[in-house]
Structures are given as structure tokens and as C-alpha cells.
């Protein structure tokens, strides 16, 4: 990403935000998309803890790891954003967007 264009940074931010969203979703694990006990979030952990205490503890460990992954991912995207803003790529991205808008208008 350091040697490529601002557009590559944009794709990175978009895909990494999707990754962070999934990690937060997996940490909560509501029974919306993945029905059952496929993600080790807080909601399945509470549900499983009442029947099988040992399995519930493993689910809480998974919940903690997903929370840790979410926090580390937020820190990483913040560091990459600070690099992006400091390297002048954001100004280049604005120029590219303006140039592509002009070309589309013509």
C-alpha cells in the first residue's frame, strides 16, 4: 500500500472496515445470519453457559478473542489512516476524484 496509489488505500480502507464490522458482529453473534452456535459471541456464550458450563467458558474465550481482534483492527486502521494523511495520498485521492468526475461529465 505504501508505494501504490490513493485508490489502493481506498480499497484497503473499505475492505478493512468490512473486516472490522465482521469482527464486531462475531463478538456479539446475534442469531440473524448465522443461526445456531456457529460464532462464539456473547449471545451464544450466555445461551450455552446455562446448559454446558465448560462449553460456555470456551465461548467466552472466543468472545474475548473477537473483542481483542476488533480493538487491534481499529488500532491498525487508525495507524494506516495517520500514515495515509501524512503521506499526501489524501490530496492525491481528492485530485483523482475531481479528475474522474470531470472526465465523466465530459
Automatic annotation (TrEMBL):
User: Briefly, what is this protein's role?
Assistant: Probably involved in membrane trafficking.
Give the membrane topology, semicolon-separated if more than one. Multi-pass membrane protein
Q: Which GO terms describe its cellular component?
A: plasma membrane; transport vesicle membrane
Family in the record: Belongs to the SCAMP family.
Subcellular localization, as worded in the UniProt entry: Cell membrane; Cytoplasmic vesicle, Secretory vesicle membrane
Keyword annotations for this protein? Answer: Cell membrane, Cytoplasmic vesicle, Membrane, Transmembrane, Transmembrane helix, Transport
One Pfam family, short name: SCAMP
Output the superkingdom of the source species: Eukaryota
Protein name, please? Secretory carrier-associated membrane protein
Q: Which residues cross the membrane?
A: 12-33, 53-77
